[in-house]
């Protein structure tokens, strides 16, 4: 049986809202790499802050205590 992959924000080991760590877990990447890419994205276009806030609102918090 296939296990469904879900995107969740992290409750622990988070910097601000747990969005970058949740995205890193989903794509099996290092959270630091995702955070650096997000900062670069923010400085290049300025939309990174708005995107982070939207993701913080839309992505649910992990129910598993992660």
Give an account of the 3D structure.
With 66 residues, this protein is mostly helical. The chain contains 3 helices and no strands.
Describe the structure concisely for a colleague.
By secondary structure, this protein is mostly helical.
The computed structural class is mainly alpha
The counted number of beta strands is: 0
Largest sheet: none
Shape: globular
Low-pLDDT runs of 5+ residues are none
Number of helices: 3
Helix content: 40-55%
H/E topology pattern: HHH
> What oligomeric state do these chains adopt?
single chain
Q: State mean pLDDT (0 to 100 scale).
A: 86
Residue share in β-strands = under 5%
- Radius of gyration from the alpha-carbon trace, in angstroms: 12 Å
Give the terminus-to-terminus CA distance. 23 Å
Quick tags:
mainly alpha; 53% helix; 66 residues
List the helices and strands and how they pair.
Elements: H1 19-27, H2 31-45, H3 48-58
Helix pairs in contact: 1-2
